[in-house]
Design brief:
alpha/beta; Arginase, Chain A; eight-stranded parallel beta sheet; binds zinc ion
Amino acid sequence: MSTGFYWDERCFWHAGGNYALTMPLGGLVQPMAAGGLPESPETKRRLRNLMEVTGITRDLAMSSAPPATREDLERIHPAKYLNDFKALSDAGGGELGLRTPFAKDGYEIAALSAGLAKQALADVLSGKVQNAYALSRPPGHHCLPDWPNGFCLMANIPIAIAAAQAGGKAQRVAVVDWDVHHGNGTEHIYYDRDDVLTISLHQDHNYPLDTGDVADKGRGAGEGFNINVPLPPGTGHVAYLDAMARIVIPALDRFQPDVIIVACGFDAGIYDPIAQMLCTAETFGQMTRMVKDAAARLCDGRLLLVHEGGYSEVYVPFCAHRVLEVLSGSIITAPDPMADTVAARQPSARVNEFLSGLISEMAAERGLAP
Ligand code: ZN
């Protein structure tokens, strides 16, 4: 069976506002020559270009998808938020939250981004494809139902899950978020529920500043169904795989999902301009291997990765290509041009030992074998 790849050129046309990285323009902040916010089309467009050049597109079922419908969106977002967003989008664009500027038609593009995730999940669940990657843009994992933040305008993954659940196609869903930032939106939406397990690996105290604590475990029926794994700046390949092996995978085994969804950011990569982790293309490949194996064992291989952050224009394409190689089993590769350099800059054994102790503590705290 095949691997689906869902994308749409239109998603690359979502335009941010007047920032240089995360700094508002004005005063002494000079506008950048290209783009503004780090969440720009370039990381995504260069991935698509790399895929064309290597030819891996021939091994994937490439398609677009219809936008999420108003009914889809209203399962997660209040009508008032959607109305305000649509009105401002029609009027030429603006800003409704924190670091989430959009231009004209931003509403339609955000609905399309969610639509890619929705269709990808539907096709994985129907068996049309074995697994899938949705190159959604704008991203979604920070978005709260009524407050966009962190470049995220609609909650792409929850919108996809809600559509699948409404159609009776899935009940138990696990979301593994390895974007370097805390998946606060996804956590918030499922905090009281036990049918969706949310796990976030993220850089400790990066973004948002007030969420992502290891003690935040869910509430009421959702108690125990939210797992945060905050890791210190400088965490690299070995400790990420360690956290996956000793926390994420055992939690998936315990939960027994019908499908696994990854909030797939690449901003834990070593060259990311707004985070301080040391992951490599191979780290992302091996994490993909681990969730793919878990999906094969737990839910007939049903696995969806939805694109989130990742802001190194030159490195994200190689990380994402590696993910697609593993996901699809394609023999077409795009070797990491920086493999030797990034391998040489990993934490020392002594630091990894310290991180291993930290991971043991977090695993034990969640009732997973230390
Ligand atoms: Zn991120």
